[in-house]
């Protein structure tokens, strides 16, 4: 019996061992490993969630109740203004909000009142699948609670759609859900959302759009407002009524599906006109300060948006580079009569930039700005106006020094010139030709023919490249006439001239230096700048542009004792314009002045918005220069007056007038050469250099003041000079002598035929011209020759 049992047990053991030795079915192994991988993923996911969530920012009731619009601050941290233009009407939870709450829950989060977590796993899984297909984080699975958290503590920028941010958002949503009731959360949400036109909160929007309280709105109006937060600009009933109706009907359909309204109510509301009950859309008058700041605020908003943020929804702390006093002074100069204009319709656009960092200090969008328009036309940044001759340092002479190593003594021929391939003759502003002259004289007196011939020598491709480094865009198909006029804004011109002010370092003009998001992240946008030209090029251009103010076309911009440089520009009317308004023939269409010190660069455009508004005549022909003079005087009143120091890469010598090749003369004019490219026998002679002695041998010798006066006028302890930290760091090879490029760029000829295709428009549309004599209109008749 015992043996029998033993044999039986032994057999069972053998069968068990045999079964265990058999390979397991494939499906069991797959299932086992699948569960194991899922488990590991869950553990890793929980760990990663905990890792991200531990750094989540704090969130309080005050945060949840606060408005969602961003604040603007100056570089000293002082509050400037809020971007919300309407005073927020905070609405407390009550029966009057029930219809609105039903609409929001139906369209945004129909399981909201059943949610105990603050997050919706079903929606999250759905969004994860969508995002996996699109290989991005584009679809949202956010509950209303999560949306509230996002509006309170996070940015809507695409760069913020990260796993870290999503984890922190979910963690804070769970905290909010534990600490507040569903109705409280909805109250926070209703008062937090952005509703366009500077309105924060649906209570504010109800008053703005309908002039009513939320409880007084009908079903269709309530649905319209409930749908707007999704895309408030697109679903704007004033500008896009068709999209607003589309969104409103989606909300109504969701309410019907969620059994919050009947079919009869849906049918009636969906047929209602989207414009029923809307108030007439008259933008509210701004405060005087907001009117002054409006052009700057507009550009700052555009810059913030370009960086991926929504300044109206993201509750940002935005540090702008505006100097409030300078901004106010620009506005006053344009409107208080201190600077004369031809008439009240004459307009202006102006920009002030700090060359050392690219900060836009102030901008002027125009004169007589209406109080009822916000974020309106900003003439400071319009790029549809020709610069006239103010482009010459950037596009003609700067590249000639940089690539061809020209000296200020380079002889140029101001004689009859016809654009190649055309019968279009180029004239100077006085309809005369002055023969051979130095590059210095040609730039100071703003002669057109030498400028065009210089561009031809350099070649348009190389000149385009040089200007492009400073964000002046010259079209590829430009003809040689671009040498005396290119389309650019006052801001672009101030930015480009800033590179001369800093000895060749360019900082892109910027309105915003820092953005801080509610979750504590900070983004700084200041940069060290880039070298766009050699120190020699920048210094030589600056030295010649000093002469423009002292002896040349910019004498109305003179400021006694101040070291500064600048260039005039004026634009003639086209033949088509003159056919309509023949009386405009002897006056400029646009008038410019761009000038700078080591501390500030200012670009000024003057002209008219429309041809019919008038022309720049009389004293108005001096407005750009006088505006610059007044503004620069104001800016530099307490600043140290510092001159540019000649770099070792530049040689200074007295050269006999119009000698070719240059010859040294003890009674000659001071001229500058790139070291390594001066004629034999010319050595650096700067021991007895006196700027005011530069023109002793010319009849343009209008000395402004002596050196002692210059050094005693402006003082500021501890101020920086143009020898900033960028120069100390930069050992750019461009400071070494240029070699090779000494002749004409062959590619320049390919551009000349474009002049033939544009012969009508190139009939001197950009040429510097002789102005009307003011006659008895002013006491400036003796300065006619100064307008070039």
What is the C-alpha radius of gyration, as a whole number of Å? 35 Å
Q: Based on DSSP secondary structure assignment, what is the total number of beta strands?
A: 18
The total of helices stands at: 25
Oligomer: single chain
* Sequence of strands across the biggest β-sheet: 2-1-3-11-12
Parts with pLDDT < 50 across at least 5 consecutive residues: 134-140, 694-788
Global structural class: alpha+beta
Distance between the termini: 129 Å
Q: Mean of the pLDDT scores?
A: 81
Q: What is the 3D shape?
A: elongated
* Helical residue percent band: 25-40%
The fraction of residues in strands falls at: 5-15%
Task: Characterize the biggest β-sheet.
Answer: 5 strands, mixed
Biased composition (Low complexity): 697-707, 748-763, 775-788
Domain Penicillin-binding protein transpeptidase: 350-629
InterPro entries: Beta-lactam/transpept-like (IPR012338), Glyco_trans_51 (IPR001264), Glycosyltr_51/Transpeptidase (IPR050396), Lysozyme-like_dom_sf (IPR023346), PBP_transglycosylase (IPR036950), PCN-bd_Tpept (IPR001460)
Region (Disordered): 679-788
Q: What is this entry, summarized?
A:
This protein has 788 residues and is an alpha+beta fold. The chain contains 25 helices and 18 strands.
Description:
The C terminus is likely disordered. The chain contains 25 helices and 18 strands. Helix content is 38%, strand content 10%. The protein is an alpha+beta fold and 788 residues long. The protein has a five-stranded mixed sheet, covered by helices on one side. A five-stranded antiparallel sheet has the order 5-4-16-15-14. Strands 6-9 form a two-stranded antiparallel sheet. Helix 4 packs across helix 10, helix 6 crosses helix 7 and helix 10 packs across helix 11. The chain is elongated. The termini are far apart.
């Amino acid at each position: 019996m015992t043996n029998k049992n033993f044999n039986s047990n032994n057999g069972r053991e053998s069968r068990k061992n045999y079964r265990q030795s058999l390979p397991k079915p494939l499906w069991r192994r797959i299932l086992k490993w699948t569960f194991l991988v899922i488990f590991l993923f869950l553990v890793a996911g929980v760990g990663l969630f905990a890792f991200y969530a531990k750094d989540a920012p704090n969130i309080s009731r005050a945060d949840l109740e606060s408005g969602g619009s961003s604040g603007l601050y100056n570089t000293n941290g002082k509050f400037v203004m809020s971007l919300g233009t309407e005073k927020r009407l905070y609405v407390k939870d009550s029966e009057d909000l029930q219809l609105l709450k039903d609409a929001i829950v139906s369209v945004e989060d129909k399981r909201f009142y059943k949610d105990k977590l603050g997050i919706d796993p079903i929606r999250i899984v759905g969004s994860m699948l969508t995002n996996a297909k699109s290989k991005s984080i584009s679809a949202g699975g956010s509950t209303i609670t999560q949306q509230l958290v996002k509006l309170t503590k996070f940015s809507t920028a695409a760069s913020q759609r990260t796993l870290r941010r999503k984890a922190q958002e979910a963690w804070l949503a769970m905290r909010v859900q534990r600490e507040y009731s569903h109705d409280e959360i909805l109250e926070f949400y209703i008062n937090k959302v952005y509703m366009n036109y500077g309105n924060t909160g649906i209570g504010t929007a109800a008053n703005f759009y309908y002039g009513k309280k939320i409880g007084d709105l009908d079903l269709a109006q309530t649905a319209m407002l409930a749908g707007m937060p999704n895309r408030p600009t697109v679903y704007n009933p004033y500008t896009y009524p068709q999209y607003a109706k589309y969104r409103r009907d989606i909300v109504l359909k969701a309410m019907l599906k969620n059994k919050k309204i009947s079919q009869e109510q849906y049918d009636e509301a969906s047929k209602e006109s989207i414009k029923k009950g809307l108030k007439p859309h008259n933008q509210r008058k701004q405060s005087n300060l907001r009117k002054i700041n409006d052009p700057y605020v507009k550009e700052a908003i555009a810059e913030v948006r370009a960086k991926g943020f929504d300044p109206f929804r993201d509750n940002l702390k935005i540090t702008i580079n505006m100097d409030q006093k300078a901004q106010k002074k620009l506005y006053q100069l344009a409107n208080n009569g201190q600077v004369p204009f031809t008439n009240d319709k004459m307009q202006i656009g102006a920009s002030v930039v700090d060359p050392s960092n690219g900060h836009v200090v102030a901008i002027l969008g125009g004169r007589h700005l209406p109080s009822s328009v916000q974020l309106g036309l900003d003439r400071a940044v319009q790029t549809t106006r020709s610069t006239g001759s103010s482009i010459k340092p950037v596009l003609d002479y700067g590249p000639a020094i940089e690539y061809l190593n020209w000296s200020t003594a380079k002889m140029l021929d101001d004689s009859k010139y016809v654009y190649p391939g055309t019968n279009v003759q180029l004239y100077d502003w006085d309809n005369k030709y002055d023969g051979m002259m130095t590059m210095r004289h040609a730039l100071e007196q703003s002669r057109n023919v030498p400028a065009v011939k210089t561009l031809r020598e350099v070649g348009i491709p190389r000149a385009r490249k040089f200007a492009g480094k400073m964000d002046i865009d010259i079209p590829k198909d430009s003809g040689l006439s671009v040498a005396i006029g290119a389309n650019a804004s006052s801001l672009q011109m101030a930015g480009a001239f800033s590179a001369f002010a800093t000895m060749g370092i360019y900082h892109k003009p910027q309105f915003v230096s820092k953005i801080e998001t509610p979750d504590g992240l900070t983004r700084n946008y200041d940069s060290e700048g880039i070298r766009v030209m050699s120190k020699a090029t920048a210094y030589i251009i600056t030295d010649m542009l000093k002469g423009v103010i002292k002896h040349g076309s910019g004498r109305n911009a003179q400021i006694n004792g101040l070291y500064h440089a600048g260039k005039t520009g004026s634009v003639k009317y086209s033949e088509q314009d003159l056919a309509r308004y023949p009386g405009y023939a002897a006056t400029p269409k646009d008038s410019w002045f761009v000038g700078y010190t080591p501390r500030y660069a200012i670009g000024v455009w003057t002209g008219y918005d429309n041809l019919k508004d008038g022309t720049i005549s009389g004293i108005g022909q001096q407005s750009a220069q006088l505006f610059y003079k007044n503004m620069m005087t104001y800016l530099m009143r307490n600043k140290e007056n510092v001159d540019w120091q000649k770099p070792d890469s530049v040689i200074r010598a007295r050269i006999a007038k119009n000698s070719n090749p240059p010859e040294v003369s003890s009674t000659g004019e001071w001229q500058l050469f790139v070291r390594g490219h001066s004629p034999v026998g010319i050595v650096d002679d700067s021991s007895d250099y006196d700027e005011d002695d530069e023109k002793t041998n010319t009849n343009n010798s209008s000395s402004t003041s002596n050196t002692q006066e210059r050094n005693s006028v402006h003082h500021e302890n501890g101020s920086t000079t143009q020898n900033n930290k960028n120069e100390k760091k930069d050992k750019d090879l461009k400071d070494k002598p240029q070699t090779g490029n000494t002749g004409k760029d062959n590619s320049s000829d390919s551009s000349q035929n474009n002049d033939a295709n544009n012969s009508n428009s190139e009939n001197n549309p950009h040429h510097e011209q002789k102005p009307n004599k003011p006659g008895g209109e002013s006491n400036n008749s003796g300065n006619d020759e100064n307008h070039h």
